[in-house]
Amino acid sequence: MKPLNIDNQGCNPISSNCVIWQGPDIPCIKLCKGDSISDVTFKLATELCEVLRQLDISTLDLDCFDPNNCGPADFHALLQLIITKVCALENTTSPTRSPINCPDCIVPIAPCFYYTNGTGDTVTTMQLVDYIQAIGNKICGLLNQITIINQTLQNYGIRITALENEPDPVLVLPSFVPACVITSTTPISIEIILQALETAFCNLQGATGNPSQILTAISAQCPDLNNQPQLSGPGVMGTILGWNNTVSNLSQSITNLWLTICDLRAAVTNIKLTCCNEGCQDIQVTMSSYLSATTLHITFNGVIPLGFLECAPGVTTFTISDQSGNFIVRTGNVIGNLNTPGGLSYDTTGLNILDNLTITATLCLTNVSLGQTCQYYLNHILNSTNCPTIIYTPTYTEINYTGTVPTGSATYDVKLYDAAGITLLQNNSIFLVGPTAITGSFTGLTSGTSYRVLVTVTTGTSTYDCPWVLLATPLAPCTPPTAVSGSIGFI
C-alpha cells in the first residue's frame, strides 16, 4: 500500500504493512497485539461496514405499519416509530374484548437477531419487550465499538506519525570465529564465511563427486555380492561380521569394500603360503579339537601345497578314545577343512566326554604330478574341563578380557587372529595355578573390524585348543567440532 504522504517533502514514507498494533487485544473484532496496521484498519473498516449494514433499514419489512404514511428515513426514525407504536398499543383497547397483550406479544424479528435454541431450531420471533431490549443492547454495543474504533484510529495516527519520523534501520550481519573454512582467531562476518564455505563445498564435491555420482559409485558393487562365497573362509560375503546386505550410502559401501579387501588379502595370504611349495617336505599340519556341548570339533591348521590330495578314497580315518577304554572311528576330509575354524564335527555318543579324549589319525597325502605320497601321524588330547571361562569386552581399538581358570596348573595362551582365523596377530601367554582369575587385553586394533580369539591350554606335554570366539570392535563415532564460537551485533 503506497502511503498518501509519499510525495510530501519532509515525510518519511513507511508502508502500513510494516507498522504493528502494540495496544491490547480486542476480542470482539478479533484484533490482536502484533497485527499490522493494514490488518487493524481492515478489521475496523469491516466491523464498521457490518454496523452500517445492520443499521440499514431498507432491508426491513415494515408492512405492518400504516401503508398510507411514509416509512422512516433512517434508523433513528425507525426506533422512534417503534416506540410510538408501542406507546399507542399500550393505550389501545377493543370495544369487544379486553385490552390487547402487547407489549407482551410475539413479533417477528430481523434476520440478524435469529438464534438457535436448545433443541436446534432457528428462532425467528421474540416477545416485543425482549426484542426492543435486544435492539437497544445491540445499538449500545455498536456505539461503544464505534467509540473504541475512533480512539484506536486516533492512536494509530499518532503511532504511524512517530514511525514515519524514525530513521531507516541499519542491518548488521552477525560474526563468529570459523572452525575450519577460514583460519582466524577473531570473529569474521557471516557473509565472508558463507563465501568461503561455498568454495570449500565446491572443492569437496569436486573431489568426491556430487550426490548423483556417489550413488552411481555405490551401485557399482559386484552383482549379488552378498551371496558370493568368501575367498578366505566358509560362508558367503553376507555372513561376514559387519557386512551391509543393503547398501544405501557411502559409509556402508566403504565398509563392504574394506571387508571385501580383507577377504581378498586373507585369501592371497593363504595362496602365498600354499601356491608355490613343492613336495612332502613343505607340508605342515597341526590338529586340535574342542567340544561344543556333546559335539566334537576337530580343526586343522597349517599348509598343504597345491596338487596334494588325500589318499583314496579321499578321506582320513580318525580314532577318538576316552580314558575309560571307549572309542569311536570316524572319517573326514582334512584338506577341505584346513584353516577352517569349525573343522570336522562328530557326535560323541559312546564316549565319556568328562574324560580326556585322545584323537589320532594317519594323514596320507599324494601328489600324482610329483609322484610323491606322504604320511603324517596326527595326535591331540582334549580335556574340555580345563578351558577357562572368559568374558570379552571389545572397544574401538582394544579387546579386554577377564575370567577364571579351573583347578590345576597350566599355561594359557590367549591368541588373537584375523577374521579368517589364519594370521596370528597377538598372543598373551601366562602360567596360572587355579582356580584363579585371568585378565588381559589386545591393543592397537582397528575399529569396526572382526577378529577371532583362540585359547590354548598346555598341561605338561598335552596341548589342546578351546572353542574359537568371533569378536568385532565397534565403529568409532565421528569427532564433533571444537572451539566454535559466534557473536551477533546490532545498531
Task: Note down, in words, how this protein is organized.
With 491 residues, this protein is an alpha+beta fold. The chain folds into four domains: 150 residues, no CATH class; 64 residues; 103 residues, Immunoglobulin-like (Sandwich), CATH 2.60.40; 108 residues, Sandwich (Immunoglobulin-like), CATH 2.60.40.10. It contains six helices and 20 strands. The radius of gyration is 49 Å and the shape is elongated. The two termini are 28 Å apart.
| Proportion in helices | 25-40%
Radius of gyration: 49 Å
User: What is the N-to-C succession of helices and strands?
Assistant: HHEEEEHEEHHHEEEEEEEEEEEEEE
Mean pLDDT: 82
Give the N-to-C terminal Cα separation. Answer: 28 Å
What global shape is seen? elongated
Main sheet makeup: 6 strands, antiparallel
- Total beta-strand segments: 20
Strand content: 25-35%
What would a concise description of this structure say?
With 491 residues, this protein is an alpha+beta fold. 25% of the residues lie in helices and 27% in strands.
Key terms for this structure?
Immunoglobulin-like, five-stranded antiparallel beta sheet, 4 domains, 27% strand, elongated, 25% helix, single chain
